[in-house]
Structure formats: C-alpha cells, structure tokens
C-alpha cells in the first residue's frame, strides 16, 4: 500500500514538474518574441514584465515537489555529511528531524496561502453575481468572462491582467505536496523513500 502511495506521489511530482517546464517554455518563447518585436518592428510586447513575474510563481511552485523528492532543494548539508560519516545512526536521525521540520514549515506556508486563495477565488463571484457590476446574462461563457473580470487580479489594467487565484492555488498545491514528501521522508527515511527514482534523476 505504501509502495503504491509513493508511486502516486512520484507521478504527481513528475507531471507537475513537466507542467512547470511547459510554462518555462512559454515564458522563453514570449521573451524571444518580445526581443524580436522590439528590435525588428519597434513594437514591444505589452505586458511582458507582468507575464514574467506571474510565470515565475507558477514555475517555482509547480516544480517544488519534484525538487524536494529528488533532493535538489538548495541546502547546506556539509555538517550533516560529516556527522553521517562519523555516526551514521545519528546522521540518519538528524536527516529525519530536518525533513520533519521542513514538513512543519511547508504546512505553515500552506495554512497561510489557503485563505488567500479562497479570498481571491470568492472575489470573482463565479456562482452568484455581486450587487455591483454587470449582472448575469444566462450565457455560460459571457458570465464566466464577466466573473474573471471581477477577480482580484495581478498586473496593469489596459496592458495585462491575470486573476490571482490560479497562482495561489498552484502555490498551495506546491507547498502542500512538498509537505507530504517531507513527511514521507521523515517517516521512512531518505534512502527508503523514492530511492529507485532518485538514482535515475540525479
């Protein structure tokens, strides 16, 4: 059962990483398009700065779970490696303690982000039209676009606007899944959890 659970965690982490890489590809293409349009046509792509900032949020938190799973999260473990060489049992315990502490911190971030996601999502009034603004028309697409226009947004009006709730949802997913992976490593140990997968990704 645990093996199936670990395989599920690996699959979700890898697919989220692929999604983050896809966003990165779109970001690179957008920036190249902006460079060409500026230099050749003297017509810069409006909103490229806002798009870069928004995309970076998606990339970081989509790829965070797989980074944690494969042990590539930026860290300084020189002292830990020395302890493991001198006393493997104490080093393994310290590894699990660090992973458990990391899980707690990720849970704290998720606990902070979730209300912000709910607030930004509810600002759109997808399911009930607000007392202000355009009323519902009965047309699903029109009402959806009107709701998206009401959302708490990031960007500059008239240039580029994007609702905040998808980014905050991705943030919540990234830190929550990272917390699950840290918990699994603290529970079973880094060498036991995802060991076969980490060897193929490092």
In brief:
By secondary structure, the protein is mainly alpha-helical. The chain has one domain. It is 73% helix and 4% strand.
Shape assignment: globular
Question: Over all CA atoms, what is the radius of gyration?
Answer: 22 Å
Mean pLDDT: 83
Order of helices and strands: HHHHHEEHH
Q: What is the tally of helical segments? A: 7
Question: Would you tell me the structural class of the helices and strands?
Answer: mainly alpha
Measured as a percent range, the helix fraction is over 70%
Layout: helices, strands, pairs:
Layout: H1 2-39, H2 48-69, H3 78-86, H4 88-122, H5 140-150, E1 153-156, E2 160-163, H6 164-188, H7 195-201
Antiparallel strand pairs: 1-2
Describe the structure.
This protein has one domain. It is 73% helix and 4% strand. The chain has 7 helices and 2 strands; from the N terminus they run H-H-H-H-H-E-E-H-H.
Entry keywords:
globular; 202 residues; two-stranded antiparallel sheet; disordered C terminus; 4% strand; mainly alpha
């Amino acid at each position: 059962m645990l093996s199936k659970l670990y395989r599920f965690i690996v699959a979700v982490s890898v697919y989220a990483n692929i999604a983050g890489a896809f966003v990165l590809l779109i970001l690179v293409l957008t920036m190249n398009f902006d460079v060409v349009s500026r230099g050749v046509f003297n017509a810069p792509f409006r909103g490229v700065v806002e798009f870069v900032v928004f995309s970076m949020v998606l990339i970081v938190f989509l790829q965070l779970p797989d980074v944690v799973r494969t042990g590539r999260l930026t860290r300084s473990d020189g002292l830990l490696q020395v302890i493991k060489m001198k006393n493997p049992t104490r080093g393994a315990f310290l590894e699990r303690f660090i992973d458990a502490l990391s899980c707690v911190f990720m849970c704290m971030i998720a606990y902070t982000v979730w209300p912000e996601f709910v607030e930004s999502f509810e600002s759109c009034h997808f399911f009930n039209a607000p007392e202000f603004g355009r009323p519902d028309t009965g047309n699903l697409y029109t009402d959806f676009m009107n709701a998206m226009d009401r959302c708490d947004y990031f960007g500059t009006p008239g240039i580029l606007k994007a609702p905040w709730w998808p980014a905050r949802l991705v943030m919540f997913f990234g830190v929550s899944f990272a917390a699950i992976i840290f918990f699994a490593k603290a529970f079973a140990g880094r060498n036991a959890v995802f060991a076969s997968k980490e060897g193929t990704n490092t």
